[in-house]
Amino acid sequence: MKTIRRLIYGEVFAAVFFVLLAFLSLFFFFDFVDELPDIGKASVLDPTRVYGLPDALLYVGLLTPSRIYELLPIAVLIGSVFVLARLAQGSEYTILRTSGLGPWRALRTMLGLGAVFVLLTFAIGDYLAPLADRGAQLHKARFQGAISLGQTGAWLKEKQPYSNFSVNVGSMSPQGDLGNVRIFEFNNQGFLVSTLHAQSGRIEADESWTLRKVERREFDAAGQQSAKVQRSTLESFRWPTSLNAEMVSVALLKPERMRTADLFAYIRHLEANGIPTVVIGTARDIVEHCGVARFLHTDFPLGNPCGEPWLVEQQQAILERAFRLLETATGPRTTEQSPFQWRAGDDWKARVFTPEQPFHSPESREN
Q1: Model confidence at 32, in pLDDT bands (50, 70, 90)?
Q2: Measuring CA to CA, which of 4, 5, 56, 128 is 20 to 30 A from 263?
Q3: Angle between helices 103-123 and 2-35 (to 10 degrees)
């Protein structure tokens, strides 16, 4: 069996490698073409530096781990089907069956190979790809001048004893300087107290932001007859806050490019500042172990948390339940079970929850 397993694994790994290489070459070309308009442009931070061909190749190269994460599942599927079809076409599979490779043993062999690719995909997507994407964005920011999240920037919330703040950061430079900062202050009754707009700013080490070229408006509504607005222009303004550079950079990065641990830490930060969150997921034991605030569990195969493909009404109903959970949850770590069942039945569970997987044993559940 070891010889047969080594034969199948070797063939599948080789096929997957070549399929993945073909896809990566294609997407590398597409990403490089997207960078061509920027080649030759001078850096905003240093006009003497020009975004050249090596910089474009480095940027596209740093995007490769994300591409591997996106393309590896389809490459595994195509490579495995190709190998099995070739073995069947050349009667090699018939010979293997006469050597003792029954259907169930062949299925276990392929499931073991699939588990290897699952772990590899998880490691790339959760560790290598976020680091590489962060490096790519910082490298590009040295020429563009800042990291930004479209035209709206990133929104954060800060809760203090007597006020609540909604903060919008337009961009963040590689050196940590903030650009186009807007702060909206509300009192505990929800009334707008002041607004602030700063062209630039910096996050200090003493839990404060130093904002420059500030326009501030304060609203005095003590009485209906005496309501007024006080406007002031300041060259510099110090704003005490617990929002640090890491939180701002996380908010500016795309959530799908964050590590799972960082994503859950960011969710906890949102919850701590009064922004409710809800997670829709399938792996109940894993998500509950992470300690999310609200969790809507759908008992579907992995990759289908929001419903079955093409069932729009079912997907809408699941989303409605998730939004309703935002309002009805009465405490932290609330889990609600979705009533929907997979149309094809529960046969998929027999292929996932097998005795060979130790994390489904009673001992692991007790721990």
Answers
A1: very high
A2: 56
A3: 40
